[in-house]
Design goal:
By secondary structure, the protein is an alpha+beta fold. The protein has 3 helices and 8 strands.
Length: 161
């Protein structure tokens, strides 16, 4: 069964330079980005730096590719990670004007790859599945992202499994 979700623009982070989106799983009260901040609250300094980057992207710089670790998913799927310190936040990097954030977590310094950390691996796999669905919807023109990063969902079939 496919993951079912909505895409929510995060108004407090989006701005003139970029649109910041997050995924909200069906039946969940909060987006994955909100869950990421809640689940990792003990890493306040790192979270604050990630939040600052997100605000800067939306308002001043756009989503600079160099701030992301690319190729965290399958070749060409756009899954990347925004990181600071030991925290990893998985996303679908679209371009400098739009990014779709999932969740992530803490990667201990002794771990060489996220696959070595079960909780982090689960978050990365979840983002890979979400990216697959979003990428398919873009190809099928069910989701259209304009050059300025604005999102239009032409239709979303909730009955399809």
């Amino acid at each position: 069964m496919r993951i079912k979700f909505d895409i929510k623009e995060i108004d407090g982070l989006s701005g003139e330079k970029a649109h910041i989106y997050s995924v909200q799983l069906k039946g969940e009260e909060y987006t994955l980005l909100e869950q990421f901040f809640d689940e990792n609250s003990k890493y306040a300094t790192d979270l604050n730096e990630i939040l600052n980057k997100l605000c800067l992207m939306g308002r001043e710089t756009g989503c600079r590719r160099q701030w992301f670790k690319m190729n965290e998913g399958c070749p060409g799927d756009g899954v990347a990670a925004l990181w600071y310190g030991q925290l990893r936040l998985y996303c679908l990097y679209f371009d400098k004007t739009a990014v779709f954030f999932g969740s992530g977590g803490y990667k201990p310094s002794q771990a060489h790859a996220y696959q070595e950390v079960p909780e982090l691996n689960a978050k990365a796999l979840q983002m890979k599945e979400i990216a697959k669905i979003i990428n398919r919807a873009i190809i099928d023109k069910d989701i259209v992202i304009s050059e300025n990063g604005e999102l239009t969902i032409n239709y979303w079939d909730d009955d399809e499994d």
